[in-house]
Design a protein that fits this description.
436 residues; flat; 64% helix; Glycerol-3-phosphate (1)-acyltransferase
């Protein structure tokens, strides 16, 4: 890699690190030390959130990372040239060729050469990005690339897979969270005997092994119904016993294991528990309430919050006025363009980078018509801080509004509050019992 590309990579990575931290302010890394590998490596990530999955995988590693990317992204000549310069290698899928035979020989040769030189590739073996907290079936491409390189060296390559599991909460919204968990390296040379016995079966065996490893590094639900039920149980625990992000993620993993254990040992008990949890949240939604309002031991604090919201309203108005256009425009464009859910975060993130940059340049020019250079820069630097304060105000206001609605409901029917809290306490106790 020449000096210019090296500097460009470092610059882009610094921008990604800062901006992803802003988009997902709650980001946690677990066992990141596993990624400090110096030899040839294939970094693999699960793929629920399109471009952002690759970005999180790359920024998790201290090394330069090349990417295997969908061939469709390279069809535009300008985009294709740019992506090829920015460490991307195109890979065809059957949906890219309308069923015609794939032509990935040149791309596999580039990947081979990069790994043979001790480089690192990033691959999303699921092949397509689909929403939800579950790992889809892995395609065999990553394993075939690995065996191609390792077999040429007589399985003395030192090539490893570095699995990285990504677990998002509210992935398509600004302010969401993501937990990134790395796993121990998987040595490709260890599969030499399997390759010698049957190369086709060896590819399948390695692919299945990697898929299982990924399921152990991310929250992996079986379907949308289980994911939803797990989300409800997480809310119950979070509103009664909040934990730091890493600890909460590990608690969720244990809770999911508890779900599976109850299903196997007490099927009627599992059916009753899942029915009661869904009924509780359905009733909440029917009244337009949220769980935190029921979990609160007292609702008297509502008046204090309302007073504080009125006092700080000017901060919200100013922060919203200075940041609303570039904040909302990417999501509006994504909706009008019919972006599917798994692509919305990418639209918002990339659009935010573009529109906020343009908007802040315009704001600076407007400030300069009224103020000195020093004052203009000061106001410009204050603008994103005010925007962040406005967003926090909005979250606080929503929370207070929910509490106010609950206060009104329970003020008229105090016996209803007691009934709900008792029902919730029973659900919470069962949920805690499954956190093994």
């Amino acid at each position: 890699m020449n000096l210019f590309l090296s500097a460009l990579y470092r610059l882009l990575k610094a921008i990604v690190v800062v901006t992803l931290r802003i988009f997902y302010p709650h980001t946690a890394f677990i066992d990141r030390h596993f990624l400090h590998h110096k030899g040839p490596a294939i970094l693999i990530v699960n793929h629920p959130n399109t471009l952002l999955d690759a970005l999180f995988g790359a920024l998790s590693s201290p090394r330069y990372t090349f990417f295997l990317a969908n061939y469709s992204l390279f069809k535009n000549p300008v985009a294709g040239w740019l992506l090829n310069q920015l460490y991307c290698i195109p890979i065809q899928r059957y949906q890219d060729t309308n069923g015609r035979p794939l032509q990935n020989e040149d791309s596999f040769a580039r990947a081979d050469a990069h790994l043979a030189a001790g480089g690192q590739l990033l691959v999303a073996p699921e092949g397509a990005s689909l929403p939800g907290r579950r790992v889809r079936t892995f395609k065999t491409g990553a394993a075939r690339i690995a065996f191609s390189m390792a077999s040429k060296s007589g399985f003395q390559s030192g090539l490893v897979f570095l699995p990285v599991g990504l677990t998002y909460e509210r992935p398509h919204r600004f302010g969401g969270s993501v937990t990134v968990q790395a796993g121990p390296p998987v040595a490709v040379d260890d599969f030499a005997d399997a390759w010698a016995a049957d190369p086709v079966q060896a590819v399948r065996e390695l692919t299945q092994h990697l898929e299982l490893k990924m399921q152990q590094l991310a929250v992996h639900t079986t379907d949308e119904a289980e994911d939803k039920l797990l989300h409800y149980a997480e809310i119950l625990l979070r509103n009664s016993r909040p934990l730091p992000q890493k600890e909460e993620y590990l608690r969720t993993r244990r809770l999911l294991d508890g779900f599976r254990g109850l299903q196997q040992t007490d099927a009627p008990g599992w059916e009753r528990f899942s029915r009661d949890v869904r009924a509780y949240f359905f009733r909440l939604h029917a009244l337009g309430l949220q769980d935190h309002a029921v979990a609160a031991p007292s609702l008297q604090f509502v008046w204090g919050h309302i007073a504080a919201l009125w006092l700080t309203l000017p901060v919200f108005v100013l922060g919203w006025a200075l940041n609303a256009l570039p904040f909302h425009l990417p999501g509006f464009i994504a909706d009008r363009a019919g972006a599917v859910p798994e692509y919305k975060a990418t639209w918002k993130y990339v659009g935010g980078l573009l529109f906020f940059t343009i908007w802040y340049v315009i704001l600076y020019q407007l400030f300069r018509t009224q103020f000195s250079v020093l004052w203009s820069w000061g106001l410009l630097l204050l603008t994103p801080a005010l925007g962040w304060a406005a967003w926090r105000y909005y979250q606080w206001a929503l929370h207070t509004w929910q509490s106010w609605k609950a206060w009104n409901v329970f003020r008229k029917k105090p016996e209803l509050r007691q009934e709900w809290q008792e029902f919730r306490a029973a659900l919470l106790q069962e949920t805690k019992g499954m956190v093994i």
